[in-house]
Specification:
By secondary structure, the protein is mostly helical. The protein is 67% helix and 2% strand. It is built from 19 helices and four strands. The longest helix has 34 residues. The radius of gyration is 23 Å and the shape is globular.
Length: 434
Amino acid sequence: MIRKFLCSAAKHTAVFAVVLFLLWLLLFLSALIPNDMIRDNMEKSALAYKERTAFEFTNGDKLNSVADHYADSIWLNVSWNMGKGNPLISSIRTNYYDGGELGENAGLYLSVTQGTEPNKDYTRYWHGTAMFIRLGHLFTDVEGVKLIGFISFLLLVGLSLFILAKNKHWDLAIMLALSLAAVQIWNIRLSMEYQPSFILAFMLIPLFLALERRGEKWLTVLSVISGTAVAFFDFLTTETVTILLPLALVIAVRTKENRLGSLKENLLLLLKCGICWVLSYGGAFIVKWLIASMVTNTNAFEMALSSVAERMGNKVEMYADKPKSILSAVAANLSMLFGSEIRVDAGRTALGIIFLVLILLSVWYLFRGKDKKSEATIILIVLGAVVLIRCLALNNHSYLHCFFTYRALVTPIFALLAAMWLNIELPHKKRRRK
């Protein structure tokens, strides 16, 4: 038993190491691209953000339509500075010029056009998306990079829906599409920051759906890949979607095909996948901080952990009111679903939730089936609840950045729709006997 566990742990660790090394190698190769080759398009991007506010409303005063130019300008700045000096070091020691009192958008412009040296250390993230930013700027500017990312996402969503429909799960495909619409997924086109976790999720979903039939070992391996990759690419936005949404789809598919198994077996499987994902996600950060500490001769752990404490705390920025309670982060994220113009709109959110719950309960009451899928319902609810737990754990971050973290609610929304659908039976016409 112990030998089997150690063998499995070694295999999963090897997958983690290989994936992280390959991703870093690609980042290193992108740092080899001379800045002179991307200068013209980088200047176009820098000029475009120089004329914009850090956070731009694109649909009235609705917060869920805000474009985060602040984060994108930092990403561009980090990407630009990766092209300076030794690429082995610059791909690890990630920093940028913050622009001082002028702000990050001006900092990007000054870095690209005047060669201003970076003054802000940002080594706590891998900034893996920088490889695509640098590669994309060989032939387009930031608007082109965002468009390519959004088109890639749409193609991957189309592939996932096609696979579900091909396997006669057109109903789950519809539920998935409705869930994406509920979080206004089209708004991820507004910022590069919004795209990586969703692109990764829909790259992994076809793999989860294909390999889950071959045993749970493949699901845990995919969980390792998911956790490692999202830590490498994502900016702490909607990282949970890369593991929870694929698993929710697997549970729904297995339930429809009558091969779900017992509640205990599935909860144990989810626990294994969750542990693999968390260890890989956290491990990717620890490796980054360890290598960064060696490269910079500083304690990268201290700076990174200080940032983590800030996101879990109750500190707010000047542009946001202080949360009234620990539940404010959850309330803020739910408010975004209903087009709120303030972080917490209790009235609008309560009405919206009551209306949706009444619809779901009415459909279930009218069409409830004889064969109850209680095990699947419990599992789906557990998966959806993890998103809300994440909001509570990182309450400061989830409250401040609710205008993009709320899109992680795609998982609980899909979980609720799938749970309802699996427990109903639509009426059908009886065939007449000749």
